[in-house]
Design goal:
Layout: E1 2-6, H1 14-27, E2 31-35, H2 39-48, E3 56-60, H3 64-72, E4 77-80, H4 88-101, E5 105-110, H5 116-122, H6 126-142, E6 148-153, H7 157-170, E7 176-177, H8 187-200, E8 207-208, H9 216-229, E9 239-242, H10 253-265, E10 272-276, H11 282-285, E11 291-296, E12 299-304, E13 307-313, H12 317-331, H13 333-338, H14 344-359, H15 366-376
Parallel strand pairs: 1-2, 1-8, 2-3, 3-4, 4-5, 5-6, 7-8, 9-10, 10-11
Antiparallel strand pairs: 11-12, 12-13
Length: 377
């Protein structure tokens, strides 16, 4: 499963485009797409492709000759929109050249640029997007070109999901997922995640892209994080989990979690870390995390896979998290557990019982609330 993003620079700006490509690769992009909208862009690709750390896809609209020029520049793949290269002979010319050069092509159907006759016949529906992809695929097959992947993107999430489900049932081709024009974060990330995660959990999709109105590095980072969250990609960066806080919390969980995230993200460590607001349930609820801290009675209970290994002053919690995160990544969980403070478990249990004695077992006073509700009934 791979993550794709797209540069926002002018492709003729070779150094600027390469700088963005390297940033995208560092954030988790496996493939980067660059526009090829004029001859200068094609010439830029000739300089970019040999210096890129990841495969480059040329994005082609309207002018089929630029697809031929991009192949001359050495790109690894083409993306063609069947809605705006309309002449079948032009599509076949590109497909024939790609076949001879061994260059794959993505058929990039977009709900906003369908052939007029397809729109008139099917309307704004999954069937329209799939029919467009099938028509383009037919042109490729007529010249014996088979190295094709397909996308059927829409900005409407239910339409996008329906189109990909229909496409997966219709063709046996690799599929590139995306919600097009998703918009700026955080709403854009939510829309794209809703569509792509639904399909990925159904086993549909081979590559993904977040189409955000933002720095494309955010696209790459979101894509990597999505695949890691779904267990489709080995974790390469931080996964921070934190409780939403409650009446038992004794620290500002939002502030502590934010400080921990900032410090740990700068290290780019592949580790899952938990920040919990209390010591009563924190270590148990986050026992699956590699490392975590739970706050109580002005102290932090540091735990590794649910086992308390240190009790530290509250003001040192974030620094200790960073120190132990480095240790776990370099030495492993077992080595960290072997270095546990023998007295930490007893100290932590004493804090836990003292907090329960102070606050009781119902810190949010849920039982009293329920009793009030029942009296009204």
């Amino acid at each position: 499963m791979t993550v794709q993003s797209m540069t926002t620079t002018r492709t003729s700006d070779v150094d600027g485009t390469l700088a963005q490509i390297y940033a995208l690769a560092g954030a988790g992009a496996d493939i980067v797409r660059c526009t090829c909208n004029d001859v200068e862009a094609a010439e830029g690709l000739a300089h970019i492709v040999p210096r890129s750390p990841v495969p480059i896809v040329a994005d082609i609209h309207f002018q089929y000759r630029l697809a031929l020029a991009a192949m001359d520049a050495g790109v690894d793949c083409l993306r063609l929109n069947p809605g705006n290269i309309r002449k079948p002979e032009h599509i076949r010319a590109v497909a024939g050249e790609a076949r001879d050069r061994g260059i794959p092509i993505r058929i990039g159907v977009n709900a906003g640029s369908l052939d007029p006759d397809i729109s008139e016949r099917y309307g704004y529906t999954p069937e329209a997007l799939v029919e467009s992809a099938k028509r383009e695929l037919g042109h490729f097959e007529s010249v014996g070109f088979e190295d094709v992947k397909i996308s059927v993107k829409a900005s409407d999430v239910p339409l996008m999901v329906g189109a990909y489900r229909l496409l997966a049932d219709t063709v046996d081709r690799p599929l590139h997922l995306g919600v097009t024009e998703a918009g700026p974060p955080p709403a854009g990330i939510l829309k794209a995640t809703a569509g792509m995660a639904t399909l990925l959990l159904e086993g549909i999709g081979d590559t993904i892209r977040y189409s955000l109105t933002a720095d494309p590095v955010e696209e790459a980072r979101a894509g990597r994080q999505l695949l890691e969250a779904l267990g489709l990609r080995e974790r390469k960066g931080l996964d921070l989990i934190a409780c939403p806080s409650c009446g038992r919390a004794e620290v500002d969980v939002i502030a502590v979690a934010g400080a921990a995230q900032k410090a740990l993200e700068e290290l780019n460590l592949p580790i899952q870390v938990a920040v919990m607001g209390c010591v009563v349930n924190g270590p148990g609820e986050a026992r699956g995390a590699d490392l975590g801290i739970a706050a109580g009675r002005r102290r932090g209970h540091l735990f590794v896979r649910g086992q308390v290994v240190r009790v530290v002053p509250e003001e040192e919690m974030v620094d200790v998290l960073v120190e132990w995160a480095k240790r776990i990544v370099s030495e492993g969980v077992e080595a960290a557990l072997a270095d546990a403070d023998a007295s930490a478990v007893a100290e932590a249990e004493a804090d836990r019982m003292a907090l329960l004695e102070d606050q009781g077992t119902d810190a949010n006073e849920t039982a009293a609330t329920i009793e009030a509700i029942r009296r009204r009934g």
